[in-house]
Design a protein that fits this description.
It is built from 14 helices and 15 strands. It is an alpha/beta fold. The protein is globular and about 60 Å long.
Length: about 450
């Protein structure tokens, strides 16, 4: 039996231990696979487990440690998972839909290839809704993924399998994608850390079948993990070194109302306000603000839903293989004139001027990640927030705006509701200033440690 404690260690610590031969890649991979076998049936986080291949690669990684000539990558022997929207060579990739139930890609997506080149070992694929269309995780191929903190609640989405796996200790690193909040939403729901890099920093190619047009401008790939230090994109910058200085002196704005937010749950509002106070303790100059921005919801929705609708239009003659809510979106979107899609593109570019001017004054913006706690499994969206009926997507007003702009944004766990459900704080930075977002995430984690919190699943 493998050492179960290994399943809870961060990737950075595991990588260092493996290099110093304090633990072997075989032990690390065995610990992850044993925990997946034990816990995953209750969560349905993993939909495909590549255990045999992972163990072969772990043995090869262990042999490499004994060779002086071997060039070891920074993640040598560290396990990771891949969201089922992302292509994996020789491993089934369904995109959460019956139309691709038996799809086996012939090559890895660039992010997967880079993880492997860095020495990481893939454990398998995690669940996602069809083409990532909602912020919950269920589909007609694999069913519902459940939140480790409460099995009757959603772990968010569309990277909900990844967030559930991270929260439950089913490996340290989990690749997700984000076109409207799909890394940050589940990070908030499952009480883990998630980073949406600046658009263009991490390749988003090799994801679900290309939808083309402007919708590709919304998406990026990133990682969910249990520790902030593991949210490190590949670039020429030494991110681990950049985490150390802290955030003293940074100009930070906090708001729970960007100008168009319909409702925020009182517990979420209170927890995030307290979390913003921690940045004052860290030496930041924090201001409570109300930006008063107009909503980019229509522009984002037309681009996001337009891309999915275009991709799914050919399958409308198989209605039983498309979720009712998704089918309604497809049918409604296809009725729009083409000029509406083009106008949304222009509106997206115009809306960027609001945060652009705002970030001339502030280094970081803090908001709640989502407007409510995790809702019941099986629902596509919550029907109300704080007793107020809300429309679909109204519960994610803080996430999708920064897909419109392409700015870096992370979600960090900042508290619990009275029912024991996690709450996330969003940290947004200037375009390509991912280092500041990651530094702030790590500083907040040091000020408000989280790793000791684990869902009870034994």
């Amino acid at each position: 039996m493998a050492d179960a404690r290994l399943a809870w260690l961060p990737a950075t610590e595991l990588a260092a231990m493996i290099r110093r031969k304090k633990v072997s890649p075989v032990e690390v991979v065995d610990a992850a696979l044993e925990r997946i076998e034990k816990i995953n049936p209750r969560l349905n986080a993993f939909v495909t487990v590549t255990g045999a291949a992972a163990r072969r690669e772990a043995k090869a990684a262990e042999r490499a440690l004994g060779k002086r000539s071997a060039r070891l990558g920074p993640l040598h022997g560290v396990p990771f998972s891949v969201k089922d929207l992302v292509n994996t060579k020789g491993v089934r990739t369904t995109f959460g839909t019956p139309f691709y139930r038996d799809n086996v890609p012939t090559e890895d997506a660039p992010m997967v290839e880079r993880m492997k080149t860095a020495g990481a070992i893939m454990l398998g694929k995690t669940n996602t809704p069809t083409f990532g269309w909602i912020g919950a995780t269920h589909n007609l191929v694999f069913g519902i993924t459940r939140n480790p903190w409460n099995l009757e609640r959603t772990p968010g989405g569309s990277s909900g399998g990844a967030s559930a796996a991270a929260a439950a200790g089913l490996g340290p690193l989990h690749i997700g994608t984000d076109g409207g909040g799909s890394i940050r939403i589940p990070a908030s729901c499952a009480g883990v850390f998630g980073h949406k890099p600046s658009r263009g920093l991490v390749p988003a190619t090799g994801n679900h079948p290309p939808v083309g047009g402007g919708s590709a401008r919304l998406f990026t790939n990133g990682v969910l993990a249990r520790r902030a230090e593991d949210l490190l994109p590949a670039s020429g910058e030494d991110y681990l070194k950049s985490l150390r200085p802290g955030v003293k002196g940074l100009r930070v704005a906090y708001t729970d109302d960007l100008g168009f937010v319909e409702a925020v749950d009182p517990e979420v509002r209170a927890a995030c306000a307290r979390a913003a106070g921690a940045f004052r303790e860290l030496g930041c100059k924090v201001e409570d603000v109300k930006p008063g921005w107009p909503s980019p919801r229509e522009a984002w929705g037309e681009i996001f839903c337009g891309g999915i609708a275009t991709r799914m239009a050919a399958y409308l003659d198989r209605p039983n293989d498309i979720e009712p809510g998704l089918r309604r979106i497809i049918e409604a979107t296809l009725k729009n004139p083409s000029t509406k899609y083009v106008q949304a593109w222009f509106d997206r570019l115009a809306w960027w001027q609001h945060p652009r001017a705002f970030f001339e004054k502030y280094d970081l913006l803090l908001t709640p990640t989502i407007a409510c706690p995790p809702f019941a499994v099986g629902l596509d969206n919550p029907t109300q927030i704080a007793g107020k009926p809300v429309e679909p997507y109204a519960w994610i007003p803080f996430t999708y705006p920064f897909n419109v702009t392409g700015q870096p944004a992370a979600s960090v766990p900042c508290g619990f509701t009275k029912d024991g459900l996690p709450i996330g704080l969003q940290i947004v930075g200037r375009r390509f200033d991912d280092a500041a977002v990651l530094r702030a995430s790590a500083a907040f984690e040091r000020a408000r440690p989280w790793a000791q919190h684990r869902p009870v699943l034994e």
